[in-house]
Design a protein that fits this description.
This protein has 22 helices and 4 strands. With 413 residues, it is mostly helical. β2 and β3 form a beta hairpin.
Length: 413
């Protein structure tokens, strides 16, 4: 009787899992999060990254984990795996504890933990994912997004003008601060589509294309769509990442660990030459480069003057309240963002030790992983060297529940 009951429960849980996963795949990038009130501000200025936001996809992930809580607990019975989890959770707890925005810090970090748990669940229970449905959904969004992006670019503004469903801001040339420069294109309204910035749009499309490649279902036409998207977004880092990926697909022998060391070296080098970057002609002619340079320079000074916090972090999102007095007078508060570098961002929030532990984990995964795993790590490091959206944008974060599964579904590790 008990065995029949257990089997009945497991069968129904798997059915519910499949339904919830289907919902996520159908609404992949939709729903630009519900903003909770009141708004959190720094000296009266509303900062988007300090506003607690909840998306439909995050609620679904929470439900999936509730359904599979027993399975997750059993997985972490392994003492070695549990010790690694507790080590990372300790630094996360310290970051939340020291944050001036406790509720935001708790929720944002909880979502990351749930995404990791969910990705583990999909790897260990692949039968709950209907891969053909996921692939079809990815193809649909690749087609839909390139069409939406092109119309957005040609229209120089919103197409649906609907924030709650499509996440589109009512951008038009009449709105203040809308016209802006990007790396490749200037003086135009970027093809925002359902994303808050064109760079995020480009990176999201790149990761969708990568997912399709992992499932061995990509076609030349989707890569052509990708090139169109990368060009109209004007995002040089995304275009560089794609070109390197395409080069490695053509010449896989070029992929080795020296590329990783090169990226890390360039990041360290850039951090210490930021004063030169700020004063350079390149920075003068490109506000995007200038803003990235001086945010790195401010970070470097705080790290040097606060070695203990450099090691253990300044507290989750405390960056905004700490550096506000060091910003240049003509910084547009609307674009007041974290440093455009995930390594610096992680040090601010969790500390250098947490970052070093993360690198150790990535190194182990890289050494034992397949070709696609190595490429994925490389893409993350490249894009993370130029911006922070990989760890701050919820749409890209949600893809994290499927990427680990995709890396081993058709590619043996």
């Amino acid at each position: 009787m008990f065995l029949n009951l257990k089997k009945y429960i497991e069968t129904n849980v798997n059915k519910l899992n499949s339904i919830l996963i289907l919902l996520i795949t159908l609404i992949f990038p939709l729903n630009q999060q519900y903003h909770l009130r009141p708004f959190i501000s720094v000296e009266g200025f509303i900062i988007d990254y300090l506003i607690l936001k909840i998306s439909a996809q995050e609620v679904i992930i929470f439900l999936i984990l509730v359904l599979n809580l027993v399975f997750i607990i059993k997985f972490f019975r392994n003492l070695r795996i549990l010790s690694v989890l507790l080590l990372f959770l300790t630094f996360i707890f310290l970051s939340v504890l020291n944050s001036r925005y406790t509720l935001l810090a708790f929720y944002d970090n909880l979502i990351w933990v749930l995404i990791v748990f969910c990705s583990i669940l999909f790897i260990k229970k692949p039968e709950i994912i209907k891969q053909d449905v996921v692939v079809k959904s990815i193809k649909f969004w690749l087609i839909f997004l390139v069409i939406l992006g092109c119309f957005q670019f040609l229209n120089q503004g919103s197409i649906f003008n609907n924030y709650h469903i499509f996440g589109e801001y009512p951008y038009s040339e009449n709105n203040l601060f809308i016209k802006q420069r990007n790396t490749l294109l200037s003086d135009f309204v970027p093809s925002m589509g359902i994303f808050s910035h064109s760079n995020i749009f480009g990176a999201y499309y790149l990761f969708l294309l990568f997912l399709l490649r992992c499932f061995k279902k990509d076609r030349v036409i989707f890569h052509i769509f990708g090139v169109i998207v990368f060009l109209i977004t004007g995002s040089l880092p995304v275009l560089i990442a794609y070109c390197i990926w395409f080069l490695l697909l053509t010449f896989p022998n070029l992929l080795n660990f020296r590329l990783i060391f090169l990226i890390l070296f360039l990041n360290t080098f850039a951090l210490f030459i930021t004063p030169n970057l700020i004063d350079s002609k390149v920075s003068e002619n490109n506000y995007s480069v200038f803003r990235r340079a001086y945010l790195l320079d401010i970070s470097k000074e705080y790290f040097i003057n606060n070695p203990l916090k450099f090691l253990f972090g300044f507290g989750y999102m405390n960056y905004f309240s700490i550096v506000k007095n060091d910003l240049w007078d003509y910084e547009i508060i609307r674009f007041f963002q974290p440093p455009h570098n995930i390594f610096i961002f992680i040090i601010w929030n969790y500390g250098f030790i947490f970052l070093a532990l993360g690198f150790c984990l990535f190194y182990k995964i890289y050494k034992s992983g397949n070709f696609e795993t190595k490429v994925f790590i490389l893409l993350v490091l490249i894009l993370g060297s130029f911006d922070h959206y990989i760890v701050t944008n919820h749409q890209i974060q949600i893809l994290g529940i499927l990427i680990p599964y995709s890396l081993i579904s058709k590619n043996k590790v």
